[in-house]
């Protein structure tokens, strides 16, 4: 299918679900891309995975009660994130084991709950792998609103999140509320996951969180640039993925994730400074990023060049 | 007024006694080395000074007032491995992160903040490297970034945790000079180390710690072998004692 046909389908009133799906996919991948930067830099991918599974019982309850899936998922996800944060305070069992316990426990609970609903098999597949049909208009506003709140909180607390990512001990010494910042970050990750579940599904949502941010990390050494690149990569992957999925009748979640994975692999090979092939070419042509053959001159630290108010 | 005044401090960790009956004072202009083996409670003592750990008994006064995280004029330089060095951040941003607590919520760095960071980077002579990603720095440069981050708060007291560990001799010497001159510029500097040579060479006063304070004085006054065997739990024939006698 050509791009023009895809655009025509997007505008076709009989296919009203398609632009809705595209809007939700783009919004959620932008939010996931931004939040995912913290997830990637803090090495909390496993928490993202746990939360993605933990929303399942909430969605199952919402499904059984015919309520809002986004809301049900958010409640269950936030509850699990809080449980993990609280249980992780006990140092005897490491955080990754706690996450493992709650991840599988919550998912098991979801399976048991949803098995009580008649005709669950089809819906189960929808939860697991995502779907572009059957998104209510209400969800469009919920996702848009939640996305804005998440991005607003990231903007407001960015400096604090960075400090905690960099050095927890120092952050405590500065008097930052490290525990509460952790909780807020967990909740933001949960909400980003929940709003993405519709199109991508529980199993694949982790990719939206991790892959664009990881690709962006390969492309830059500057955090600000990374946090702009990641949502761009995510949004592009969502658009291209949905187009391919619509054209070739492939599952939408899987296709979006495969596009994002391709971007990641390309970055891994061709990133300007850290790409595998880029490094090899640079070595072959004899260019090094810094002159490593000459050691830098040792500074004279005993004598400040310019006595400044900071040290007087 | 004393920069630091610790009286009768007891600290337990996980129900076990780690520090007992610690009395220690520190004045501005002093560079004090805190020596002891692994598990002696060196880092715990620094954390108690920063009010990051619960104390069982005793009190810690910083410039006459009880210590509170983020409120006392203390610059803290934790061990290098506490910092996430692969984080995509430049040297000056890393130094600026030291002011996060002082800036307060919803504030962005202003002129005062950038000036303080600029001065701190000047002081450790990293100004030329200020835009370099921290991941590309050498061990000595990284240690200087951490010192600059602490100096960005213009503290009067500096606590350094194992600043020499894992660094080669020229770099140690360089940092030693930096700490000496910071003390000369009227900072109170307390650093933990288990590197005896660097400590004896740099510090004007040594505190030997192993759960309790075993000795406290000028390096020349700590020649008694028994103090060192008690602190480090080594035998009379240990190479450590040969080192003490040689210095």
From TrEMBL, chain A:
Region (Disordered): 285-312
Keyword Magnesium included in the entry's annotation: no
Membrane topology listed for this record: Multi-pass membrane protein
Pfam families reported for this sequence: ABC-3
Protein's cellular compartments: Cell membrane; Membrane
One BP annotation, GO: transmembrane transport
Keyword terms of this UniProt record: Membrane, Transmembrane, Transmembrane helix, Transport
Record keyword Transmembrane helix present: yes
Record field: transmembrane: 20-41, 71-88, 100-120, 140-157, 178-197, 203-220, 227-246, 252-271
Domain of life from the UniProt record: Bacteria
GO cellular component: ATP-binding cassette (ABC) transporter complex
InterPro entries: ABC_BtuC-like, ABC_TroCD, Anch_rpt-typ_ABC_trnsprt_perm
Cited NCBIfam families: anch_rpt_perm
Family of the protein in this entry: Belongs to the ABC-3 integral membrane protein family.
Name of this protein: Anchored repeat-type ABC transporter permease subunit
Organism: Micromonospora endolithica
UniProtKB/TrEMBL annotation, chain B:
Pfam families to which the protein is assigned, alphabetical: ABC_tran (PF00005)
Taxonomic superkingdom: Bacteria
Organism: Micromonospora endolithica
KW Ligase (keyword) present: no
SUPFAM superfamilies given in the database record: P-loop containing nucleoside triphosphate hydrolases
Segments forming domain ABC transporter: 1-235
Family the entry assigns: Belongs to the ABC transporter superfamily.
Keywords: ATP-binding, Nucleotide-binding, Transport
Molecular function as annotated in GO: ATP binding; ATP hydrolysis activity
Official protein name in the record: Anchored repeat-type ABC transporter ATP-binding subunit
Organismal lineage: Bacteria, Bacillati, Actinomycetota, Actinomycetes, Micromonosporales
Annotated InterPro entries: AAA+_ATPase (IPR003593), ABC_transporter-like_ATP-bd (IPR003439), ABC_transporter-like_CS (IPR017871), ABC_trspt_anch-rpt_ATP-bd (IPR022508), Metal_Ion_Import_ABC (IPR050153), P-loop_NTPase (IPR027417)
């Amino acid at each position: 299918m050509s791009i023009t046909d895809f655009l025509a389908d997007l505008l076709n009133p009989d296919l009203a679900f398609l632009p809705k799906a595209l809007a939700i996919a783009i919004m959620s991948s932008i939010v996931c891309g931004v939040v995912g930067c913290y997830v990637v830099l803090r090495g909390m991918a496993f928490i993202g995975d746990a939360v993605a599974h933990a929303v399942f019982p909430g969605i199952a309850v919402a499904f059984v009660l015919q309520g809002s899936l986004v809301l049900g998922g958010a409640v269950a996800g936030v509850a699990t994130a809080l449980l993990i944060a609280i249980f992780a305070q006990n140092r005897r069992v490491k955080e990754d084991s706690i996450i493992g316990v709650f991840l599988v426990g919550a998912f098991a609970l979801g399976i048991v709950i949803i098995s009580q609903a008649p005709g669950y098999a089809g819906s189960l597949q929808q939860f697991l792998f995502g779907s572009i049909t059957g998104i209510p208009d209400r969800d469009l506003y919920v996702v848009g609103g939640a996305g804005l709140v998440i991005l607003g909180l990231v903007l407001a607390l960015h400096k604090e999140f960075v400090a905690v990512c960099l050095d927890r001990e120092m952050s405590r010494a500065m008097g930052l509320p490290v525990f509460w910042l952790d909780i807020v970050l967990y909740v933001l990750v949960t909400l980003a996951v929940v709003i993405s579940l519709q199109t991508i599904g529980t199993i694949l949502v982790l990719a939206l969180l991790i892959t664009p941010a990881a690709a962006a990390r390969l492309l830059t050494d500057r955090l600000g640039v990374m946090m702009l690149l990641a949502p761009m990569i995510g949004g592009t992957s969502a658009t291209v993925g949905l187009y391919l999925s619509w054209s070739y009748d492939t599952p939408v979640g899987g296709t979006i994730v495969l596009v994002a994975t391709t971007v990641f692999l390309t970055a891994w090979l061709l990133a300007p400074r850290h790409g595998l092939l880029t490094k090899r070419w640079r070595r072959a042509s004899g260019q090094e990023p810094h002159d490593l053959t000459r050691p830098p001159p040792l500074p004279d630290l005993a004598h400040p060049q310019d006595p400044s108010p900071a040290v007087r | 007024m004393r920069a630091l005044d610790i009286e009768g401090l007891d600290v337990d960790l996980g129900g076990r006694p780690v520090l007992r009956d610690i009395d220690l004072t520190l004045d501005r202009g002093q560079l004090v080395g805190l020596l002891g083996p692994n598990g002696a409670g060196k880092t715990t003592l620094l954390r108690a000074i920063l009010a990051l750990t619960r104390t069982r008994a005793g009190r810690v006064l910083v410039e006459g007032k009880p210590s509170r995280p983020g409120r006392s004029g203390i610059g803290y330089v934790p061990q290098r491995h506490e910092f996430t060095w692969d984080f995509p951040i430049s040297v000056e941003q890393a130094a600026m992160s030291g002011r996060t607590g002082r800036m307060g919520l919803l504030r962005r760095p202003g002129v005062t903040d950038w000036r303080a960071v600029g001065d701190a980077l000047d002081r450790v002579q990293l100004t030329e490297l200020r835009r370099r990603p921290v991941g590309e720095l050498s061990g000595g440069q990284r240690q200087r970034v951490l010192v600059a981050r602490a100096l960005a708060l213009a503290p009067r007291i500096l606590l350094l945790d194992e600043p020499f560990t894992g660094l080669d001799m020229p770099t140690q010497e360089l940092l030693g000079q930096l700490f000496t001159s910071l003390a000369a510029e009227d900072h109170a500097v307390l650093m933990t180390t288990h590197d005896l040579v660097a400590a004896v060479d740099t510090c004007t006063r040594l505190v030997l710690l192993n759960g309790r304070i075993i000795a406290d004085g000028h390096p020349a006054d700590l020649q008694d072998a028994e103090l060192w065997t008690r602190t480090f739990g080594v035998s009379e024939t240990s190479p450590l004692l040969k080192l003490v006698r040689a210095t």
